[in-house]
Amino acid sequence: MIIIGTFTHSIELEHALTKLESIGIARERLLVVCMDKESNTYRSEQQSQASSLSTGVEIGLACATALSVIGTSLGFIWTWGPVIWGLIFAFIGFGLGFGINAIFLNKHATHNRHKAEVTVIVQCQAKQADEVQQVMWASRALTVGLTQASPE
Amino acid sequence: MNPSRRPIAKLSPFGITSIHSCNPYMVWWWSAAFPGFGHFLLNQYLRGTFLTLSEVIFNTLGHVNDAIVYTLCGNFAEASAVLEPRYVIGYIIIYFVAMWDCYCSAVYQNKLYRIAKLKDAPLPSMKLFTSEVQYLQPKSPLAAAVISLFFPGMGQLYIHRIGLAFYAMFWWWLYVVLSHMHESLVYLLTGRLSESIAVLRAHWLLFMPSVIGGSVYHAFIKAKEYSLLFSLEQRQHLAERYRSSAVQIFGRPGENK
Questions:
Q1: What's the gap in Å between the CA of A152 and the closest CA on chain B?
Q2: What is the DSSP secondary structure assignment for residue B73, as one 8-state letter?
């Protein structure tokens, strides 16, 4: 008898596994598979995009710092006052620094709404099947399935 | 075994301290909103605390918030007059260096996180201290954000980051009292509009949008991070405990039922 349950990562999942072991399911009769929601190769592409932008921002911030101090000081004699001139110079500085380096890349985010994060497969005697399913449902299993197609 | 050279998380009486992949632009922006907030997001709580103290002290001495209000109201002469040149130049230097520093740290922590994740160092799951209990737990980012919106610091309490929680609550009380914000709200709710505006103190009021925003973002993002940590730790545990599974779904070739 094979019983398959899917779970989210939760303390209830740990409770279910501990409970299953305590009702006499040997640890070797449990197969726990952690499911990935996204591919690793896709993630690594996103990270390289992020780091290509970072140099531009670092230079932009450095220029913004320098120019903003100048702008704020000049603001004491210019009509709009130190705050606006400080801000304007900061933006100009950032634009100059960032503009030299930046390459803007669009992110295309895909969302995966599937909730199952862990699949628990239990191989047990037919007489234990009810109890195993009960433990799974009581521990907030998302789905529970049962099949007899296995040598026991 | 030696402690890992590239650990991801540590539990202390003050909460979870961890390395995470984050968006450096958001860290940078929150430092711009309130110096020190970017460092809080990077789990650099000590320097974040000192930077926020420095921000409040020198903003107050330099009358920076008052000048911002005058400027945005178009009263440029008053804005120039109220600013204290003694403090303003230093304030601006600290302000920008704090932004630059936490942006660079965010980029570097992302690199550290990538390495640490590959090394898969063992994560802690819970720890008992003499006067505290700390553990990884999935937390709702929405709940954390909403309660920090009502009272900054409460979201941090919810996600177990208690040092920052009480620091934020203390300061929020000061802002509320000094800006007369809650009095103003009561006037507003009872329909006395002009009194509700007159009672406000601009200098202290102007800190509040940044503090609310920063507190909400911190609680939200940390709740997400801690939930992820919980999943990662559980995966490590499950992989370790059930690695020797003998479950055979299809049986060996040629074997009959």
A1: 8
A2: T
Distance between B7 CA and the closest CA of chain A, angstroms: 21
**Residues 50-109 in B contacting A (C-alpha not used; CB under 8 Å):** 64, 67-68, 70-72, 76-77, 79-80, 83, 85, 88-89, 92-93, 96-97, 99-100, 103-104, 107
d(CA A94, CA A64): 5
Whole-angstrom Cα distance, residue B163 to residue B12? Answer: 10
The chain A residue lying nearest B90, using CA atoms, is: A69
ipTM > 0.90? Answer: no
A149 falls in which pLDDT band (50, 70, 90)? Answer: low
pLDDT mean over A37-47: 58
B80 contacts in chain A (CB < 8 Å): 75-76, 81-82
| pLDDT digits 0-9 by tens, A112-136 | 456 788 999 999 888 889 999 999 9
Maximum C-alpha span of chain B:
94
